[in-house]
Design a protein that fits this description.
CATH architecture of the largest domain: 2-Layer Sandwich
Radius of gyration: 33 Å
Largest sheet: 6 strands, antiparallel
Strand order of the largest sheet: 3-4-8-7-6-5
Strand content: 25-35%
Helix content: 10-25%
Number of helices: 3
Oligomer: single chain
Length: 173
């Protein structure tokens, strides 16, 4: 055996002896104790997911099925009650709900963190399976016309006659 092999074996044995000396046979490793419980959801409560419909974060497992203009059709696994309770947590405002035998509707819903003029109408219904259907419509609030001006004055400001014809055809952009 060469000198290098003897040195390597000696170092290996010394390391093993040090490792044996540090651990005692009666020591049992205790697992770390978490200060916050791992699961804070109640039974039947929906958890947040990843997918959004407009500004609304869908519950876990929710999928957008199709989008038509300002309407989003989605489905979520779970009961309609748990989905409605989850959606209520997505706003800071006092939200009114219309609860019927086949659906729950939030007629004017503002999502926390969204622009103040972004409103949604959310309809939650069940198809008698383990999934819940959602229809989320974007509502656009149009500001009222300025008070004190007639229709003819408003039309003239935008370059039209009261019957909708262009005042100056040369100024068309």
């Amino acid at each position: 055996m060469g000198r290098n092999h003897r040195v390597a074996i000696t170092l290996l044995l010394a390391g093993a002896a040090l490792g044996c000396r540090r651990s005692k046979p009666n020591d049992v490793a205790t697992p770390p104790v978490a200060s916050v419980p791992a699961d804070r959801l109640g039974p039947g409560e929906a958890a947040p997911g990843q997918e959004k419909a407009h500004d609304l974060l869908l519950p876990r497992g929710g999928k957008v099925d199709r989008v038509f203009g300002k309407s989003v059709y989605a489905w979520v696994p779970g009961s309609p009650e748990s989905v409605a309770n989850y959606i209520r947590t997505q706003t800071d405002d006092e939200v009114a709900a219309i609860i019927g035998p086949s659906a729950t509707v939030f007629p004017k819903f503002h999502v926390r963190g969204a622009a103040r003029d972004h409103w949604l109408r959310v309809e939650i219904s069940s198809d008698q399976t383990d999934t819940t259907n959602l229809i989320i419509d974007r509502i656009d609030d149009k500001p009222p016309p300025p008070a004190g001006k007639s229709n003819a004055e408003l039309m003239k400001e935008v370059g039209l006659t009261p019957d909708g014809k262009i005042l100056d055809p040369k100024r068309i952009e």
